[in-house]
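Researcher: Structure for this, please.
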Amino acid sequence: MKKLFKNLTFQVLTAIAVGVLVGLIWPEVGKQMKPVGDTFINAVKMVIAPIIFLTIVLGIAKMGDMKKVGKVGGKAFIYFEIVTTLALVIGLIVVNVLKPGAGLDFDKLEKGDVSQYTSEGGGKIDWIEFVTHIVPSNMVDAFAKGDILQVLFFSVLFGVGLTALGNSGKMIIEFFEKLLNVFFKIVGYIMKAAPLGAFGAMAFTIGNYGLQSLLPLGKLMISVYTTMFCFVFIVLNIICKLYGFSLWKYLKFIKEELLIVLGTSSSESVLPRMMNKMEKFGCSKSVVGLVIPTGYSFNLDGTSIYLSMAVVFLAQVFGIDLSLTQQLTIILVLMLTSKGAAAVTGGGFIVLASTLTAMQVIPVEGLALLLGVDRFMSEARAIVNLIGNGIATIVVSKSENEFDESKSEDAIQEMYENRKVAV
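Model: Predicted structure, C-alpha cell format:
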C-alpha cells in the first residue's frame, strides 16, 4: 500500500479527482487555487530553456556530421507537415459529418470577452515579424523570456559552432553533459510537486468555468475529443505499426506524463521529462535533442484538429454553408497559421482570429463562444500534441537507425516490473 501512495500516477490521479471535487463543491476556493497550478508550471518553465539549449547543442555536437544534422531536421519537418495536415483534414471531415454547431443560436449562448484577440491588429499574425522574431536580438533575453523558437535558433548555431571546433571543443561538451544532468536532477525535484500542480490547475478550471458552461457546447467538446481519440488510435497507430512499435506500449510508458498534462493543461509541463523518457525508450540523445523541441513549435497535431473543427463549427453556428473550395482554403491557411501558434501570446485564439480574418466569411466575434469551453478542450490538445511529438521522435530515430531496440525492450520490461511492485 505504501508503494501505491508513492506512485506518481496514483498521486496525480488522486490530485485531479480532488481538484475536480473542490472546484464543484467550493468554486470560490477552487478559483483561489490558480497560483498553485501556475507556480508548478513556472517551476518547469524555469528549466525548459537551458534543457532545450543543452540537448540541442549536445545532439548536434555528438552527430558531428552537419549533413546528418540537416538530414534529421529535414525528415522531422517533412513528417511534421504531413501529419499536421492529416490532422487538419480529419478535423474538417468529422466536423462536417457531426455538425456540432448546427441549430445553435449565437445570440442566446454565453460568451466570453475576446476583445484582446479581435481588436485591430489582434487577430492577425504579422509573418514578417514572426520570421524576424526567430532571430533573437539578445541571447540572454531569449532565455529570460523562455522563447522556445529563439532558444532553438541560438542552440543550433551554438551546436554548429561547437562542432566546428573539433577536438578542442570536447571539454565544453563534457561540461555541458554534466550540466544537463544537474538540470534533470532539478526536474526530478520539481516533479515531486506535480500532484500539487495538477490539483491547483484542475480546481481553478472547474471552480472558475464550472461544468454548466460545457452543456451548450457539449456536442462540440464530444466531437473534438472523439476526433482526437480516433486520430491517435487510427492515424498515429498506423504510423506506429509501419515503423514497427506498439502504440499501446508507448502510451503506457508515458502515462505519468499524460496525467500531468491532463491535470495542468500544458504539454510544456513535461517537456524535460519527455526528452528523458524518449531516450530511455530507445531514441538516441541527438535525435531527441533535435526533434522534441522543434516538435513543440511545429508538430501540434491536437491543436491542428481543434483549429480546423473550431472554424467550421463557427460557420455552422452562423448558418454559413462553406463550399469545398472555402474549406480547402481553411486547410491551406491553417497549414501556415497553426505553425505560429506556439510563438504568439494567446496562440490558439490568435490563430483562429487570423484564419477568420483571412477568410472574411465568418464573423470574428464568434470566438467569444469558444472562450468558456476552450480550457476544457486544451487538455485534449496538449495530450495529443505530446503523444504526436513522442511518436515523431521514434519515427525519425528509426528512419535514421538511431533507435536501440534492446534499450526499448528493457525500458518496457522495467515499466511492467515497477507496476507489479507498486500493486
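Researcher: Any notable elements?
Model: The chain has a mean pLDDT of 82. The domain at 2-422 is CATH 1.10.3860.10 (Proton glutamate symport protein).
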